[in-house]
Design a protein that fits this description.
Elements lengths: L1 H11 L6 H10 L8 H8 L4 E2 L9 E2 L5 H17 L1 H12 L4 H22 L7
Antiparallel strand pairs: 1-2
Helix pairs in contact: 1-2, 2-4, 4-5, 4-6, 5-6
Length: about 130
């Protein structure tokens, strides 16, 4: 339908997001563009969960959410680190600060998800800042 085609064109305007990623997001994540960034990150499972109890401060982890979307977003984030300047800058900043590579990659996934959510919410294609 024309609405899906428009959503696909908006999503694929972002460097690092291809047809497979766009189709998966459209099919499995109809909420994209309608929720705020914290809720959409929690829905996918890229928002950190804390395991604190009393004075004990546990490690942060990601869990839950929609696994198919998270898997596709992982590959899109790997591609975006190479081709998308906004995601690349954040990733290299975190790695330079001493964060583990996988932690920086999950942060890149979340950054990409927030960008895609904002693009669909505003209805405007990608324009680098």
């Amino acid at each position: 339908t024309p609405i899906w085609r428009e959503r696909e064109n908006l999503l694929t305007s972002v460097p690092g997001v291809g047809d497979v990623t766009a189709h998966t997001l459209i099919a499995e994540l109809p909420e994209l563009g309608a929720l705020n960034r914290r809720r959409i990150a929690a829905l996918i499972g890229v928002a950190p969960l804390n395991r604190d109890s009393g004075t004990f401060r546990g490690r942060r982890m990601i869990a839950g959410g929609r696994a198919n979307v998270r898997n596709v977003l992982y590959m899109a984030a790997v591609t975006s680190i190479r081709w998308n300047p906004a995601v690349r800058t954040q990733y290299h900043r975190l790695v330079a600060a001493g964060r583990p590579v996988k932690v920086a990659l999950v942060a890149a996934m979340r950054k990409l998800l927030v960008i895609l959510d904002a693009i669909l919410r505003d209805g405007r294609p990608w324009h680098p800042a």
